Amino acid sequence: VQLVESGGGLVQPGGSLRVFCTASGFTFSSYTMGWFRQAPGKEREFVAAISWNSRLTNYADSVKGRFTISRDNAKNTVYLQMNSLKPEDTAVYYCNTRPVRSDYWGQGTQVTVSS
Questions:
Q1: Using CA atoms, how far apart are residues 74 and 23, in angstroms rounded to an integer?
Q2: pLDDT tens track for 22-57
Q3: Is 45 within 8 Å of 38 (Cβ atoms)?
Q4: CA torsion sign, 75 to 80 to 83 to 88?
Q5: Which of 16, 24, 78 is nearest to 50 (CA)?
Q6: Which terminal residue of the chain has fewer beta carbons within 10 Å of its beta carbon, N or C?
């Protein structure tokens, strides 16, 4: 199993960024997928999730209305579109299944929101 996150970078407050997670080694299209993040000195937290067929999504209150999760089962990829970014969104972003599999964590992708 491999989950590879990409697309992070440095963005100014109010800006947008889209991060990607490509999966291999399991039947991606059968699983609910989620995005998580970990800021320096803090525990990893839930950000967003999407059902296997994209019909259901849910978001942490802190990102609701600003972030959008989507997926393409043909490409084994889940996306997180982040708009109106704030400095407090700075973190390493990870994807995983829901429920989380501890052995599935990838290296994450760094998102830094700063002027």
A1: 11
A2: 999 999 999 999 999 999 999 999 999 999 999 999
A3: yes
A4: negative
A5: 78
A6: C
